[in-house]
Amino acid sequence: MGRATKVVLAYSGGVDTTVCIPYLKNEWGVEEVITLAADLGQGEELGPIKEKALKYGASESLVADATEVFVKDYAFPAIQANALYENRYPLSTALARPLIAKLLVDAADKYGADAVAHGCTGKGNDQVRFDVSIAALNPDLKVLAPAREWGMSREQTIEYGERFGIPAPVKKSSPYSIDRNLLGRSIEAGPLEDPWTEPLEEIFVMTKAIADTPDEPEYVEITFTQGLPTAVNGKALDPVALVSELNTLAGRHGIGRIDMVENRLVGIKSREIYETPALLLLIHAHRDLESLTLTKDVTLYKRGIEETYSQLIYNGLWYHPLKDALDAFIIKTQEQVSGTVRVKLFKGNATIVGRQSEQSLYTPDLATYGADDQFDHKAAEGFIYVWGLPTRVWSQKLRG
């Protein structure tokens, strides 16, 4: 690792990233540390975080308001791609990492820093997402990861911070590790490390327990324009307001909880709990609208693209040329994906009960079994003969 004189540090306000400030300066000889906290709609007051960084040695403490960009430029493309890692996780946390990496690179350029840093450990996915994204955006920029290299336990990290006036955190009442942004929450560690242990209700914030949800269903209509969600119940909303509204609606009915054992990029399995009410609902509705507006072959081909797309995001390859190419394919498919989906929210379930579109490929005269049926039934016999001909030839040879 080469020496760095000025570093932009991704800053959360927690113990690890706060200790990174004196550690970078005293152990690695960094002259100036600039911290950057990203506001991604996590609902926290970032003012105290800004002051905290300055108090413990940062020369500048930046707070980037990036919620709108996060939803519009990162979440919405993932919705168009129906991106679900391992067909379950809608990548609420993973989507934030390439944006934070871009904010770090932009800040480094603006302030003339020769390196950026983060507080990721060597065990998780985020270190890869940050390092690779930064390398894609500026391959000449050094990336420092103190927590990956300092070899200190949690207790030792706290003791190190105390040497520089950083107080030990008040005893944690929660053993969980939690990450939050507007798209959702991820909860891990503590008793959740046993995959047999049922999550306690206390860990959930965005979604209600089924017992506490309304006893009557609620219907919501979600409108998409070229694959992008644009309105809820007929009311046009900006991206942040739309996601916020659906978080409230879906969360009230206990929709959006995920409990899964996922395969991390570093090769280990991890038990993860997610709350992503709006994001799951939007992907569910968007995929259904595609069934109405895309041809069969495009739909089937896109399913394979979606799996690859999800893996690219999860594996930190947002700025990869393959993703750029897949983006072009997905954007092309979305030209006809406009319309409205009606969803019934009730007791943890989001059931699609209606869909309509001016680009609909559904033809009532062909689909009906009533008197208006325009399908040529006589044509079916010849079609079946031609379609089944390879099977017939194979069978004859096999049994000949």
* CATH architecture call of the largest domain: Alpha-Beta Complex
Strand order of the largest sheet: 3-2-1-4-5
Radius of gyration: 25 Å
Number of strands: 14
**CATH homologous superfamily heading of the largest domain:** Argininosuccinate synthetase, chain A, domain 2
Instruction: Using the coordinates shown, work out and report the CATH topology of the largest domain.
Output: Argininosuccinate synthetase, chain A, domain 2
Strand content: 15-25%
DSSP summary: helix tally: 13
What about the largest sheet?
5 strands, parallel
Overall 3D geometry? elongated
Task: Please state the structural category.
Answer: alpha/beta
Order of helices and strands: EHEHEHHEHEHHEEEEEHEEHHHEEHH
* Structural domain tally: 3
- The averaged pLDDT comes out at 92
Distance between the ends: 71 Å
Bin the helical content: 40-55%
Unreliable parts: none
Task: Supply the CATH class of the largest domain.
Answer: Alpha Beta
GO molecular function, one term: argininosuccinate synthase activity
Family: Belongs to the argininosuccinate synthase family. Type 1 subfamily.
Binding site for ATP: 10-18, 38, 119
Binding site for L-aspartate: 121, 125-126
Protein described:
The structure is a single chain. With 400 residues, this protein is of the alpha/beta class. The chain folds into 3 domains: 6-66 and 93-163, Rossmann fold; 177-356, Argininosuccinate synthetase, chain A, domain 2; 366-399, no CATH class. It has 13 helices and 14 strands. The chain has a 5-stranded parallel sheet with strand order 3-2-1-4-5, sandwiched between helices. A 5-stranded antiparallel sheet has the order 10-9-8-13-14. The protein has a 4-stranded antiparallel sheet with strand order 6-7-12-11. Strand 2, helix 2 and strand 3 (60-65) form a beta-alpha-beta unit. Helix 8 packs across helix 9 (277-293). The model has no long low-confidence stretch (mean pLDDT 92).
